[in-house]
Fold this sequence. Notes:
B: mainly beta, 35% strand
Amino acid sequence: MKKIIYILIIPFLLAAFENIAAQEMNHSPAAVEKMKLHRIWHKTDNAAGIFLDGAENYTLLNMSYETIDGDFRRPQQGKEENILKFDAEGGVNLDKIYLWGEFRYSRNAIKDANFNASIIDPFRGMPYYVADTNVSNWNNQHYELAFKAGMPHINDYFSLGLAGSYKASTGAKQRDPRTENYLMKLELKPSIVYSPTPAHHIGLNGVYYSLKEESYMENINTNISQTYYELYGLGTAVIGLGSGRTTNYVGNNVGGGIQYNYTGNVDVLFSSDYSLKVEEVEISFTTPKDDSATKQTLWKNNLYLHTTAKDHTHYLNVEYAKRHIDGIQYITLRDVSETYKGWISLHKNIRSTYKDQFLQIGYDYTKNAQNEYKWLAGIQMGIKEKKDVYLIPRSEKKIKNAFGEIHGKYNCNLSDKLAKRLLMGISFAYNKNLSGHYLYGGSHPEYPIVTELEQGDFDYLSSDFYALNVSATYSQRIKKENKINFFIKANGIFAKGQNTYFNDRNNLLFTLGCNF
Amino acid sequence: MKKRNYPKLIILSSILSGMFFNCSSFDKIMDTEKVEPLQAEIRIEIELEGFDSPEGLSIVLMNYLENIRVEKEFSGLSVVIDSLIPGIYTLTVSGKTYDNQGQLYYLNGGLVNYPLIKNNETVEISISGLKISPLVFKEIYYAGSAPNYFRDQFYEIYNNSDSILYLDGIYFAALYPTAATENLPVWPESDENKYVYTDRLWKFPGSGSEYPLKPGESCVVSQFAANHQLDIYNPNSPVDCSSSEFEFNMNNKNFPDQPAYDMVHVFYNGSSAMGTVPQYLTSVFGGAYVIFQIPENVPYDPVNDKNLQTRDLSSSSTKVYAKIPIRYVLDGVEAGHNETKVKAKRMPVVLDAGMTYVGASYNSLGVARKKIGENEDGTPILQDTNNSTDDFDRGVKPMLRRYGAKMPSWNHTLQ
């Protein structure tokens, strides 16, 4: 495992620090943003195609502090969150290969989260975990290393690439029943691009990742046993009393993607990705017991289009994603014969299904100025649909929302001498619920898992809301001859739920960084 | 040369990624089908002679994990039940019925933790006559009181019959494992499910007729027969156990011998010595309690008779447990953390088809057998269907001699 991590770290370090000595472009925040809008292959899983985006050398470093507060949230989110982040990203041409690397670290102090006693991210598509009603703080840390390596033109037609990432997270709930969690995800994505002509490119990539999360629950005050609930989806739960359980999540994902890109007056890229993931949930390491599992299929389709005229660019993107999860429960019995074999799995069934669909169309227009934009305006709209069902006894959670957003940014040129810029942005988003219901037909409808967790989650997800986002970024070079762009950014989001259950949620983000 | 190395490196890395691929988890999960309701046929075989008709018998299928209860009456020797969700069930057949001679019997039988997972499965259950015990657990307080006081546990045993019974020599035990758990021990197959097992055994003192219990009288056996509400113990305790008839005295100087009579210690880890534990604490999550009486002509000495001892065969521990013959059990009550722990039953259906609970530890709550009538003297007639889920009121404030049960004349407070 250490060797794999080293393999992941080396490209990142090369990409990040190669640029310090060799850069000429002005990498103001608007320029970096515009560069990323243009990089359509970079948005796919195909690393072999990243050189087609234009292999620009750059490095981005920033630290940020984010504070989130308010009751317009899902029940398992903290009432308050404070997040400290460090991000680094870079791309570099190294001999005949283009390397891109990224490192992200965040430390999340979550306050007053509810209904989660055993999993770092309760929204990651895993319905089987332990919840409790003791509102608690969580201290989480996340580390992520990622790289992409593109090797153009290994012959006249083919290019190869490899992308990979390693993510590690730790999480600790701070109140009984408490837990200490460790999560690891290792992902590799080999890829190839076939270019029959300079204008036409066909890409193919594979995806594999392995995921593991271990959860160790305990009570520090062993004199008081805590009530907890083992969740089986949509409110179905088994009540427990004590200190919880040890849970071992092991997941494997395989998939692939296909891309077609035309480059000419219009750059078009269509990408379609399909993946299959299974994740098994075992209780206890000493005498493992199959508890449950999920089987997930994910189908993502993206269309990116942009065309640049003399001083402006049009961007269009369309995204459609469909996720289906089968929730599988085991029937197990402990062997009490003299040929003791531990827990025996007798049977398993799909007991619940979770379907999510997402369609979004976005358009952006930029008025360009060299490698930056003067101003940007855009619009997005889409539909989100959720259909979750517990099969027998039947429970349903169905939600359909439409959403839209308009946004604009103005890149104010304060001075060319030191490339002083003030980038101001504003966006307004609105979510409209079209339909939805939550019906629980299982046993114990009085459990708080039904009345507070699932109902509260439904109320949030089906709520109309608006969100206003305002940002300002000041950037400049330190010296004229020094190409390093320092910037300071403030971003504020105010979201207001449009029903009686919620009030609002505020998000403030301060970032200090440099681009070169 | 250098140029060619990069593609090789990428191809090699791609192959490496394939090496991590774990096929077994996909194989295990991919063929899983959606749940479908299933049908099962339950056939009964009445082992007692003289019963031609199953009239009066009914079956209850309980899936405690999912809180599913299905009940159906027998009209023949089998019954078909449909729309069942696959799962682990406890099947209990019981009811009053007449034999060919016109005598009324209470019959029962059942299966604990039986997996109903195949459609159209036939399940066979043997039915035998229930020995209706005149001596029953009336009230049990095991949970303790806040913040973490456990010395106020008590067990009240009641004469539910219309004749005098003698406590002398009757055994008391809490079965092993002490708390309900799905990690059940493994007992010898040669025992043929004829025994239950305990780590410690007590019995009532007396040589045969020293401790009579008249109809409507009860005796209280306390862990520590003191007034627990005193400041030196725990003012939060709901009970004053100083009027208890018996206590489990473990010779703890900090909690000295009280006026109540001492229970006689019989067995612990293969010996009659008590060991070093300073109190007789049964699980605050709920134990599985039995009282049993060995006939005079049947030898029973688990300390010296190695045939009445065993180890837990699933463990490397050398700890020794005593065997309790099921057929001599007068009454058994199983308590657990909550309703879902019925899946982790330690006690066979023939002794207790259900489980009672108070939902938490140290919550000052107990369980009390339901009153279904009154004797002429106002003492209660208590429900006993061998199913503590049904027979007990759960989460009651503990109370000695509830419903006007009388104190025996030999109680130390009356001397």
